[in-house]
Amino acid sequence: MLSVNEALSYKEDAIGIGRKGTIDKPYILRAPFWTVDTLFYAVPENNNNLNFVYDIFQNIKWKQKDESTGVPSLSKTAINNVDVLIPDYKEQKQIGDFFQDIDHLITLHQRKSFLIMISS
């Protein structure tokens, strides 16, 4: 990889997923973002909610799509061949927001547990 002068997205958030190594740990990329050559990213198209699509990415068994004999690897073809059923945007947003709220609550409890642990 050489150098990058501009972000891949300045306005739209996306989902990042490892092309090599951590292929089973997708995460949300907040704009602006840049990537390296071992990371794919997916910007949800119109009428698709980022949090809902992220939840889908988290529930795909990516390691079963591993195409390597060594370091776990994914290809665009393997990712594009994943079929999913997607409800309308309103339902996606409700589901995505619900899971985002749960993730936030889990994070708060983890922080609280950590603070209790280090103060003991």
TrEMBL record:
Signal peptide: none annotated. It holds the Pfam family Methylase_S. One of its GO terms (biological process) is DNA restriction-modification system. Gene3D superfamilies: DNA methylase specificity domains (3.90.220.20). SUPFAM superfamilies: DNA methylase specificity domain. Belongs to the type-I restriction system S methylase family. It comes from Clostridium luticellarii. Keywords: DNA-binding, Restriction system. This is Type I restriction modification DNA specificity domain protein. Residues 9-112 form the Type I restriction modification DNA specificity domain. The keyword DNA-binding applies.
